[in-house]
Design goal:
With 208 residues, the protein is α/β, with parallel strands linked by helices. The chain folds into 2 domains: 1-86, no CATH class; 90-208, TIM Barrel (Alpha-Beta Barrel). The protein is 29% helix and 12% strand. The chain is built from 7 helices and 8 strands. The protein has a 4-stranded parallel β-sheet, with helices on one face. Strand 7 (187-189) and strand 8 form a beta hairpin. The radius of gyration is 18 Å and the shape is globular. The termini are far apart. It is an enzyme of class 3 (hydrolase). One of its GO terms (biological process) is carbohydrate metabolic process.
């Protein structure tokens, strides 16, 4: 693991086993989640916990990204195993797909916290399927959702417009604030949606 800072464990081409198992009462699970009614098994025969245990022995911090496309509601258990978890299916470079992923991700806002983040998939900024304004909205939504800001474009060919969007310091500051509180919708009016500014952020003058 020398030199590695980030590991994404995709759930592709597996042997039919689950990343974790449900409905277990083993002692290891009780130690990990005594207040979660022992719903999920974190026995180290399950694939994600096996990797989690191995990474902890690597001798350096490694961000562990879980990706099973939200099928087993990883927001409910991912914090015990990794640092982020996909809450949605794969995103595509369209406005409709982006908004859909943002809406799905918001359902799990309560589970986001420092050290464990909801992941609505990588950013599509720079791939050409949306307008500049739509990409600005995309980056802003991921930022206030405290989602990992991972570029999904070819960084060798980024335009100046793309660089300006993804390097906006004020937006990145909102994403990286120490409270780690994911924004939620306050209300909807027709096609308009309003997301509240969290009180701790206001007190810290992170958002104006």
């Amino acid at each position: 693991m020398q030199g590695i800072d980030y590991l994404k464990y995709d759930n592709c081409h597996h042997d039919g086993s689950k990343p974790i198992e449900k409905w277990c009462s083993c002692l290891l699970c009780f130690d990990l989640q005594p207040y979660y009614m022992l719903i999920y098994c974190f026995n180290f025969s399950c694939r994600y916990p096996v990797m989690s245990k191995a990474l902890k022995k690597a001798g350096r911090p490694i961000f562990f990204s879980l990706c099973e496309w939200g099928e087993m509601h990883p927001a409910e258990w991912g914090f015990h195993v990794g640092n982020s978890w996909r809450t949605t299916r794969d995103i595509t470079d369209t406005w409709e797909s982006m908004i859909s992923r943002a809406d799905q991700n918001e359902l799990y806002a309560q589970y986001a916290r420092p050290g464990g983040w909801n992941d609505p998939d990588m950013l599509e900024i720079g791939n050409g399927g949306m307008t500049k304004d739509e990409y600005i909205v995309h980056f802003s939504l991921w930022a206030i959702s405290k989602a990992p800001l991972l570029l999904g474009c070819d960084i060798r060919n980024m335009t100046q417009e793309t660089i300006e969007i993804i390097s906006n310091k004020e937006v990145i500051t909102v994403n990286q604030d120490s409270y780690g509180i994911q924004a939620r919708k306050a209300r909807m009016h027709g096609d308009e949606e309003v997301k509240p500014m969290q009180q701790p952020l206001l007190l810290n003058h992170m958002i104006t």
